[in-house]
Amino acid sequence: MTGEPIIQVKNLTAGYGSTVILKGINFDVRAGEILTILGGSGSGKSTLLKNMIGLTKPLSGSVLIEGVDVVTAEGQERLDVLRKIGVAYQSGALFGSMTILSNIALVLEEFTDLPREAIEVIAQMKLKAVGLQAAAYKMPAELSGGMRKRAAIARALSLDPKILFLDEPSAGLDPITSAQLDELVLELSQSLGITFVIVTHELASIFAVADRAIMVDRESKTIIADGRPKDLRDKSEHPMVRQFFSRRLEKGNA
Amino acid sequence: MGIMDGTEQATFRLEPGRDGQATLTLTGRLDRDSTASLWRQSTDRLRELRPKRLIVQVGAVEYCDAAGISLLMEYKRILEQNEGQIEIRDLQPQFQQLMALFEIDHQVLPPKSLGPVANAVHNLGRWAADLFSDFTAQVSFTGEICAKLLKTVLHPGRLRRQDTFLMAEKAGVNAMGITALLGFLIGLILAFQSAAAMQNFGAEIFVADLVAIALFRELGPLITALVLASRSGSAFAAELGTMKVNEEIDALVTMGLDPVQFLVLPRLIAAVCMLPLLTMFNLLFGLIGCGVVMTTWDIPISTYIERISAAATLGDIFGGLAKTFVFGTLIAGIGCLRGLQTGTGPSAVGDSATRAVVSGIIAIVVADGVFAVIYYFLGI
Question: Domains (ranges, CATH) in chain B?
Fold first, then answer.
């Protein structure tokens, strides 16, 4: 995994109003890499994700996706950047008034000239890839939590993005479904070469899929660890990182 | 002879061979845009030709994404429909992986809808069943409220007083502005419109009679009730609906707190107490509105007031106000019931709010009709 940097986060300071949550963050994501963003609750993982996809404007700094700043991009340029990324939200965020198939077909209808039957075939293909083809004509409310997350990934895939952002994909799922989801991520990464940025704190998931993990910390508001998950677990100097990976409270440091 | 067509980015060539065999050669980039332009032409020609065996040459495809794969899937489907065979040749390894991930052996079809007649019968049956279950729900809800209201009257300490006052403020005090404005305008408009007819007889002074009686007996209570239904009935439904969706109602139940006692009664009592007060407020401003019109015809205020007290009896005023207690009960009861009936899904809360307003308004008008009949026989 030594691709070109596809996302560059430069000197990013993020927060809401006067509350600074992350300060001076710098890191690159290389093409084809599966990167996980870790951190305890309230450490700013989701904030970082929202800044990376241009949903919230950072207080300062910039995020470049293939060289284009998502913060300042406007008009066509912004649309082009958005088409390179797919986002699967934590709760699925499927449109409740549409069938699963229509959820996926929506952007294809809006952004391509493909005829209706082509869109239908593509949508079914995406659903098949996540193992949900049989649920194509169901409504989101009829699906279980795990199915909704998989449908959200299928929707994120609908425009063949280069980068897929997943916000806590395995939160609230049973270990088996969670493992299936990991399997899916690896499969998509290998066959389509998609770059993944995954926010999670599921240890099993991190070890199963991640090429690299970065950890943000609430106290210091910066990245306190960056490396392969195994190395972080075994070799990290930082007590927080060791605690996170060993799932233990160290005495005198709680 | 081959047929060749396409765009700058991608081309296709369909060559008929011997024994119903044909070769289709794709070149270039098979992305979203080029696939969109190739799709119609190539599938139409393929349908025309109906080969028994199709060889798709994709060795010269330099890029292929899901859209490209879907085109290959479509060829496959067309051939299957015509009972032909298809062979995809020389697909580059990276696209083969894509194919393996996305290939579908059949398309899931949308669930079959019934025929128009069967559908109509189905809908009629469902509508009737819904109407019946809705009716029983309303009856049992009314019973439940009555029982708990009685308990609360016997043990007033059990009522959540703070909530009740908060609801009274939201439903009553905060609605004063709009109620006053509506009352003023209705009084003004009513006086103005009836003046045209009255002036023909030189009987402008009787506009006061007409407006006062219309407001006291019908319009005041009705308009204020409609304001309450659209402002607070919908709010009650939305509040309780959101609580239902968030499982807050379930949480109350498992904590041993009764949602009707805890949520419905404060709203009901607040609405029933506030609606008569709001109505009086509305009436006052209605009379002021009418008075404004009267003064423009140089009728002295004192004459106007005299006229009103001569025209309207206490029976008119209290008959009108008595209705508002019933209207208030209906609005709050229906709003809360719709809220508690909220289903799942993102549009559920909105649906509940809509249903609360619609059934609230219908209930108000029906109740008003019943009152008209009762008053007629009582001679009020």
Answer: 3-102 (3.30.750.24), 134-378 (no CATH)
- What's the domain range around A26? 5-92+162-246
Tell me if A207 is assigned to some domain: yes
Cβ burial of B380 (10 Å; 0-12, 13-18, 19+) is middle
| pLDDT reported for residue A253 | 45
Nearest to B101 among A113, A139, A187 (CB): A187
Residue A202 in any domain: the answer is yes
Asked if residues B336 and B236 have their Cβ atoms less than 8 Å apart, the reply is yes
Residue A49 has a pLDDT of 87
Q: Which of A122, A128, A141 sits opposite B67 (nearest CB)?
A: A122
> Which residues, in sequence order, are CB contacts of B154 under 8 Å at separation 6+?
none
- Check if the interface score ipTM surpasses 0.90: no
- B51 within 8 A of B21, measured Cβ to Cβ: yes
Report if residue A75 sits inside a domain. yes
pLDDT at B166: 93
Is the residue at A145 inside a domain? no
> What's the CA angle centered on B365, arms B362 and B367, to 5 degrees?
105
Q: Do B97 and A191 touch (CB under 8 A)?
A: yes
Q: Where are the beta strands (DSSP E) in B172-218?
A: none
Check A114 against B345: CB less than 8 A apart: no
Model confidence pLDDT, tens digit, residues A99-157: 899 898 888 888 888 888 888 888 888 888 888 888 888 888 888 888 888 889 889 88
* Nearest residue to B262 via CA among B167, B344, B367: B167
Residues B40-79 have pLDDT tens digits of 888 888 888 888 888 888 888 888 888 888 888 888 888 8
Cβ contact (<8 Å) for B32 and A133? no
Q: Name the more confident of A226 and B220.
A: B220
Query: Who's near B274: CB < 8 A, 6+ residues apart?
Result: B168, B171, B172, B175, B228, B328
Return the structure tokens found at A21. Answer: 């949550």
Pairing outcome for strands B21-30 and B10-16: antiparallel
Q: What is the CATH number of the domain that holds A234?
A: 3.40.50.300
- In this prediction, residue A68 carries a pLDDT of 87
All residues at 6 or more sequence positions from B122 whose CB lies less than 8 Å from its CB, including other chains? B114
Contact residues for A76 (Cβ-Cβ < 8 A; gap 6+): none
Q: How many CA atoms lie within 13 A of A162 on its CB side?
A: 17
Which of B103-112, B140-149, B369-378 is least confident?
B103-112
Per the structure, how many domains does chain A have? Answer: 1
Beta bridge partners of A36: A198, A213
Residues 6 or more apart from B251 whose CB is under 8 A from it?
none
